[in-house]
Amino acid sequence: MAREKLDGQAVAALLAGLENWALAADGRSIRRKFEFKNFSEAFAFMTRSALAAEKMDHHPDWSNVYKTVDVTLNTHDAGGLTALDFELAKKMDRFAGG
Ligand SMILES: C[C@H](O)[C@H](O)[C@H]1CNC2=NC(N)=NC(=O)C2=N1
């Protein structure tokens, strides 16, 4: 099931398939800092991500400062990482043009 907590081995395998994401300091989240050309591009990315997140009913923890968007993903309900986090990470990578 998509909302089942993944074990460390599964997390490591999925993380290996993502170039720019790293395990966060808490060990239960993945993190990527996106940098754009300007605020408009950063906000366009956030808009696309927000609509996708709403469709998935799976939402990022994030913050935006000018042209950077700092994203942390985890599944609150599961207390860790699930397949949904990796699905959303891939979508966000695509929205960022990578
Ligand atoms: C009721 C609703 O399905 C839940 O609260 C959803 C909403 N979005 C969510 N987003 C994230 N990242 N983790 C969750 O556990 C989660 N749960």
TrEMBL record:
It comes from the Bacteria. GO terms for molecular function: 4-alpha-hydroxytetrahydrobiopterin dehydratase activity. It is an enzyme of class 4 (lyase). Keywords: Lyase. It catalyses: (4aS,6R)-4a-hydroxy-L-erythro-5,6,7,8-tetrahydrobiopterin = (6R)-L-erythro-6,7-dihydrobiopterin + H2O. Coiled coil: none annotated. Its EC number is 4.2.1.96. Belongs to the pterin-4-alpha-carbinolamine dehydratase family. This is Putative pterin-4-alpha-carbinolamine dehydratase. The lineage of its organism: Bacteria, Pseudomonadati, Pseudomonadota, Alphaproteobacteria, Hyphomicrobiales.
